[in-house]
Amino acid sequence: VFSFLDHIHLCHAARVCRQWRAASAHEDFWRRWNFQNKKITPLQ
User: Fold this and answer.
1) F-box domain: which residues (predicted)?
2) Most buried one in 4, 10, 33, 42, CB count within 10 A?
């Protein structure tokens, strides 16, 4: 399920429960995005 989410929705999914937070924090999900020159607010 997480692999279909973009970075913003992955952050929202992480707030569902502790297990989803742990799963969404896995580095494999974050490797596919390049955050250089992009602003990400704490709310995202």
Assistant:
1) 1-34
2) 10
